[in-house]
Amino acid sequence: MRPYYIRFHCLREGRQRRLFPGMNINEIMEEYTAEPIMILPTYYRRHPVGYVEPGYLTTVSAFLFPVKGEGYFKLDNQSFRFRPGMVIHGCPGKWLTSGNLTDKPLEFYIMYYRHEKDSDGYMHRAYEMEIGSCPSLFATLKMLADVSKHLDTFSKFQAKTLVYTVLSELFGIMKSSQNNEIQSIVEEARGYIEFHHMRQHTLCDLAGRYGMCPKYFSEVFKKYTGISPIDYLIAYRMKEAHRLLTSTCATVKEIAEMVGYTDAYYFSRLFKKQFGLAPTQLRALPIEQAN
C-alpha cells in the first residue's frame, strides 16, 4: 500500500473499504468544532498476557491509541485489530469485548469524552484509522494522561487544551492521509475509465467500485481532474474516436461502437460538440488539417 492512509471499515456489509462511504475528514472536523464535548480523563492502560475483557455496554466515546502489543476490540458486530500505528474510535451504546492476542502485554492510551447530543454523527460511530508513527502525538498523550491524574481547576484546563491538541494532530494526519488516498483513487479511476472506455458506465457504478457515494466521488474526481467522471469518459471516447477517424478506414458507425456508442447519430453530435466538426467533416479535411 501507499504511505500511511486512513482506512475505515464498514463491517455491517461484510467487506473492508479504504474510505467509509460518505465519510469526510472536513465533516468530522466541522462536527468537533460545532458540537461541545465534555472532557473526561485520559488513561494509560496495560492489559497483561492472556487478558480478556468479558464485555460491557459503553456509555461514552473514546479514542484508543495502541503503544505496544496487539489485541482485538469488538463493538457489537464491528471487530478491530488493535496494534501500534492504528487508532480506534469507540462510541456509546455498544457492547464491548476485547483481549490480548500476543505473549506480550497490550499497552495503550484511551482518551474518553462525552457528547450529550443523540445523533448519528461521527462522535457516535465506531471506526479505525491507520496513522503510522507519530511521536509528537504520543508525547502529547503522555502529558494528557499525567494531567488527568489531578482534579484541580488548572489541571482540568490543561487537560481540555491537550485534548484539542491531540484532536488537531490526529485530524491533521487524517486529512493529509485522506487527500493522498483520494488522489490515488482518482488516478486509478482515470486509468480504469480509459482502459474500459468502450463499456457502459454510470456514475453510481464508478463510485461503487471505490466504495464512495456518487456525489462525493464526483466531487473529488472533479477536484483533481477539473471535470466530472462522466465528462472525462466522454472526452476520452472522443479523443479515441478522433484517432480512429484519422488513422483507420472504419465507418462512423463502427467507430461509434468501438468507443462505446450504439447510436451513431448521438455519437456524431457529441463529436461535433467536442471538436466543432462532425466525424464526416473531419474525414473530408486534408490529413495535415485533420491531425
The proportion of residues forming helix, as a percent range, comes to 40-55%
Structural class: alpha+beta
Specify the oligomeric state.
Answer: single chain
Strand content: 15-25%
Distance separating the two termini: 41 Å
The first-level CATH class name of the largest domain: Mainly Beta
CATH architecture of the largest domain: Sandwich
The average pLDDT value, as a whole number, equals 87
DSSP summary: helix tally: 10
Order of helices and strands: EEHEEEEEEEEEHHHHHHHHH
Number of strands: 11
* CATH domain fold name of the largest domain: Jelly Rolls
Number of domains: 2
Poorly predicted runs: 1-22
In what order do the strands lie side by side in the largest sheet?
3-10-5-8-11
Q: Outline, from the CA principal axes?
A: elongated
Largest beta-sheet details:
5 strands, antiparallel
Q: Give Rg in angstroms.
A: 26 Å
